[in-house]
Sequence to fold (536 residues):
Amino acid sequence: MPVITSGATKIWRRRTTKAEWARSGAWFAAVLVFVFTWQAMTQDTIWSFVWDAPTQAADIGGRMLPPKWSYIHELWRPLWDTLNMATLGTAMAIVLALPLAFLAARNTTPSVAFVRPLALLVIVASRSVNAIIWALLLVTLVGPGVFAGLLAIGLRSIGFLGKLIYEAIEEISDEPIEAIRATGASRMQVLVWGVWPQITPAFAGVSVFRWDINIREATVLGLVGAGGIGMNLESSMSTLAWNQVTLILLVILGTVVVSEYVSARVRQAVS
Amino acid sequence: MTAAVRRWSPPPMIANPALRWAVYGGVVLYVVVSFGSVEVNWTRIAQGAERALRLLSGFLKPDFVSRGEDIWIGIQESLTMAITATMVGIVISIPFGIGAARNVVPMPIYIFCRSVIAVSRSLHEVVVAILLVALVGFGTFAGFLTLAFATIGFLSKLLAEDIEDIDHAPLEALRATGAGWWQVLVYAVLPQVAPRLIGLSMYRLDINFRESAVVGIVGAGGIGATLNTALSRYEYDSAAAVLVIIIVIVFGCEYVSGIIRQRAR
Fold:
C-alpha cells in the first residue's frame, strides 16, 4: 500500500508516485487528443449558424406544435409497411444466419482452416455496414420501396444474429454432445439433438432482441427511399410540414416503446 | 408380448397444443399477408441487376484514387467526429449515470436522469441528426452533437445499471469512517465501475464511428456524405472503396477496443 513517510507519521495514499504520474500523463494525452480533434472537426463549422440554433429551435418548435392529428390516417399504411420490413427482414436474417453460425462456431464448423474464416468474414462485413447504408445500396439496385428496406434489414441482421448465435454455440456444454455421439449419431443428428436444444433460449432471445432493434431501424430507412414511415418523415420535412413531423415522431416513439416492451417480455420468458 | 413401438420426441417449445397450433397458424398467415403487401417490381430489379454487377465488380476493383481527396476528408471528419463525440459524451454521461443509479441518489434526481436517458435512447441517431442539421446547419458539428447525444443514453444507462449492481460492503465501510457522499462516490463507487466504464467507452467509440458513416447521409458530414455522393453519381467503384474503408476501420476499431477491454478488466 502506498504511504508517504515523513518522520514517524505514515500517511496513506491511494496510488504510488509512479501511478500518479502515469495517470496525469494519460489525462494530459486525452486532453491533447480532444483539443486536436476538436480543432480539426470544427474548422469548417459556421458558428453563426450554431449560435443561431436556439432561435431556430424556438421557431421550428412553434411550428411543430400542435401536432396535425388528422394526418394519422395517412400513416397506417406506412406503419404496417415498417412493421413488415422489420419482421420479414428479421425472419430472412434468421433463416440465413443460423447455418452461418454453425459454420462459424469453432466446435461445429466443418473446417476451422477454410470455412470458419469465410463465415466470419461474411459476419463482419454484414455487421460493419449499417442498415441505412445497406438500404442506400439496395435502393439503387432494386429500386425504392419496402422490398429494398426488407433486404437491407435482413442483410444487416445476418451479421448480428450470426455473431451472437455462434458465440452461444461455442459456449455450449460438451457432455450431451459426447453422449449423443457415443450412441452412434451422425453429425446432423448431433447438431439437431445435442447442439440445437442448448442454444434455443439464446437463439430466441437474440432474435427477438434484433427484431426490436429492427423496428427502430425500419422507421428511418424511408429517409433514403426504402419505404415505411421514414418516407413520410422525409416528405413532411422537405415540405416543411413540421406539425406532421411531430405526429410522425410521436408514432415512431410509440411503436418503439411497444416493441421494446414486447421484446423485454419475450426475453424474460425464454431466459 | 409385443410392446407398442414408442418413439421419444423432445418436448415442444409451447406446451399447450391449441396455443401452439394457433401460434404456428398465426405466423403463417402473417407471413402470407405481409409478404403479399410488399410490392416487388421485378422489371426494376432486372434493371438493377446490371448495376449490381457493376457494384460487385467495383468491390473487386475498388477505386481509391479518383475520389481520393473526398474519401480522405470524409474519413478525417468521421474519425474526429466520433472521437470528440465519445469524449464529450463520456464526460456528460458520468453524472447522468450516477444520477440514474437508484442506490446512490434521491428519487427526484433519479427520475430526471432516467427520463433524459429514455429520450436519448428512443430517438434514432438519424432522426436526431436531421433535426440538428436543421438547427445548426450542415456539416460535422451537427454530427458531433448527434453522436454525443446518443452516447449519453447508451453510456449512462449501462453505467447506472453497473452502479446499481456494485458491492455495498465498501460503501458501508467508508460511511462508517465518516466519509461524505462525495468521498463514498470517489473511493467506493467509482473504483468498482471504472474498468467497465473504460470498456463501455471503447465500445461506444466503435459504435460512434459506425454511426458517423450514417449521419453523413442526412447531411451531418463524415464518410457517409462521401458515400452518398459517390452512389448518387453512379460511381460504384468509389462507393465500393468507401465501403471497404469503413469495413476495415470498423474491424480495426473492434479489434483494438477488444484488446483494451480485455486489459481493463
Notes: The mean pLDDT of chain B is 83. Chain B touches chain A through 58 residues (CB under 8 Å).
